[in-house]
C-alpha cells in the first residue's frame, strides 16, 4: 500500500522515540508528510540536555526520500497547539490526521504519589491528547462548514493500565482510561464532519516497558514487542479508506490486531419486593449477582 497516504499531512506527538518514531517512519513510507512533535524529555518527563530526537527522525525520513518537519511544542500548551495546527495548514495547505502518542511515567503507590506527579501525567496524556485533538477538530469543522470535503483522522493511544488497571499507576491508568473514552466521544461528535477517531492499545517494548527490564532484542529477528508492530495499524487508520471505522479501541499484540469491547452488563439481582432495592437485601443480593453466594443460596 505504498502511496496510500500520498498528499496527506499527519501530526504525530511524541514522535521522537519508541512508538512515535515507528509511527512517523511508517506514515512517511506510505507517502504522508509528517510533523514530528517531540520535546525530547526523559521517561519521567524531565528536560534532557541532548537535542530533541524529533530532528533525528526527520533526518531518517528525509534520507529515505520522505517529507517531514520537527516541532517542539508541548502538547499541554493550549495556545501553542492551536498555533501549530494553524502553521501546519498554512505551510502544507491542510492537516489530515493527528496521532496522539506523547506521554511519560511517574509511577508511585497512591499513598506516596504527590499532587504534582498526578497532575503532570494526567496533563501530558489526557489533556495533551484533548488539546491536539480539539484544535485539529476545530480546523476540520471550519473546513466542513465552508463546504470542503473532509476525511480527518484522529488516532489516540491507551494501554492495559488504562483498560484493566495496574499497581503504582493511579495517575497514568486513569489518564489512559480517559483517552479511550475521549476517543469515543470525539467519534460521536465529529462523525457529521467526516472525521473518525480510533484508539490503539499496543503491547510494545518502549522506554516505559524498558523501565521494568524488557527491551526489544536487536537480533534481526522479528520481535512481538517491537513498537513498529503497531505502526501499520496507525498508518491505515490515517488513510481515507479507513473512514468506515470510528469509535473503536484496537489492541495490537505482536502480529494480531483485535477490537476491544466496552463495558457489559452482567447478571443482576432484582429486589425481592419488585420495588426499590433495600439495604438489608444487598449483602446476599450482590453475592448472588457476583456468583459468590453461599452454596444453596445462589438461585
Which structural traits does this protein have?
299 residues, single chain, alpha/beta, 38% helix, 9 helices, eight-stranded mixed sheet
Fold and architecture overview:
With 299 residues, the chain is of the alpha/beta class. Helix content is 38%, strand content 14%. It contains nine helices and eight strands. It has helices at residues 18-29, 54-63, 78-92, 115-145, 160-164, 172-190, 207-210, 231-237, 279-289; strands at residues 9-13, 33-37, 67-71, 97-99, 152-157, 195-203, 249-253, 256-259. Helix 1 (18-29) packs parallel to helix 2 (54-63), helix 1 crosses helix 8 (231-237) and helix 4 runs parallel beside helix 6.
Summarize the structure.
38% of the residues lie in helices and 14% in strands. With 299 residues, the protein is an alpha/beta fold.
What structural class results from the helix and strand content? alpha/beta
Number of helices: 9
Strand order of the largest sheet: 3-2-1-4-5-6-7-8
How can the largest sheet be summarized?
8 strands, mixed
Q: Please trace the helix and strand order, writing H or E for each element.
A: EHEHEHEHEHHEHHEEH
Pick out the low-confidence regions. 207-214
Overall average pLDDT? 91
Question: How big a fraction of the residues is strand?
Answer: 5-15%
Amino acid at each position: 500500500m505504498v502511496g496510500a497516504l500520498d498528499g496527506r499531512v499527519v501530526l504525530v506527538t511524541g514522535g521522537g522515540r519508541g512508538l512515535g518514531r515507528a509511527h512517523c517512519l511508517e506514515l512517511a513510507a506510505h507517502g504522508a508528510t509528517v510533523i514530528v512533535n517531540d520535546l525530547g524529555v526523559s521517561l519521567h518527563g524531565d528536560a534532557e540536555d541532548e537535542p530533541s530526537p524529533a530532528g533525528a527522525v526527520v533526518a531518517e525520513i528525509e534520507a529515505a526520500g520522505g517529507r517531514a518537519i520537527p516541532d517542539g511544542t508541548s502538547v499541554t500548551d493550549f495556545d501553542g497547539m492551536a498555533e501549530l495546527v494553524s502553521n501546519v495548514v498554512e505551510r502544507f495547505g491542510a492537516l489530515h490526521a493527528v496521532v496522539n502518542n506523547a506521554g511519560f511515567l511517574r509511577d508511585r503507590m497512591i499513598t506516596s504519589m504527590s499532587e504534582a506527579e498526578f497532575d503532570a501525567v494526567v496533563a501530558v496524556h489526557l489533556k495533551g491528547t484533548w488539546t491536539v485533538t480539539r484544535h485539529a477538530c476545530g480546523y476540520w469543522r471550519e473546513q466542513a462548514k465552508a463546504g470542503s470535503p473532509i476525511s480527518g483522522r484522529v488516532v489516540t493511544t491507551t494501554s492495559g493500565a488504562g483498560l484493566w488497571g495496574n499497581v503504582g499507576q493511579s495517575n497514568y491508568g486513569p489518564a489512559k482510561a480517559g483517552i479511550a473514552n475521549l476517543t469515543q466521544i470525539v467519534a460521536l461528535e465529529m462523525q457529521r464532519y467526516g472525521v473518525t477517531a480510533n484508539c490503539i492499545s499496543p503491547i510494545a517494548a518502549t522506554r516505559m516497558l524498558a523501565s521494568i527490564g524488557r527491551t526489544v532484542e536487536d537480533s534481526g529477528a522479528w520481535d512481538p514487542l517491537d513498537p513498529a508492530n503497531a505502526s501499520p495499524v496507525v498508518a491505515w487508520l490515517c488513510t481515507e479508506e479507513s473512514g468506515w471505522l470510528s469509535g473503536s479501541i484496537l489492541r495490537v499484540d505482536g502480529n494480531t490486531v483485535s477490537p476491544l469491547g466496552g463495558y457489559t452488563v452482567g447478571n443482576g439481582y432484582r429486589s425481592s419486593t419488585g420495588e426499590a432495592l433495600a439495604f438489608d437485601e444487598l449483602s446476599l443480593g450482590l453475592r448472588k449477582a457476583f456468583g459468590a453466594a453461599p452454596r444453596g443460596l445462589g438461585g
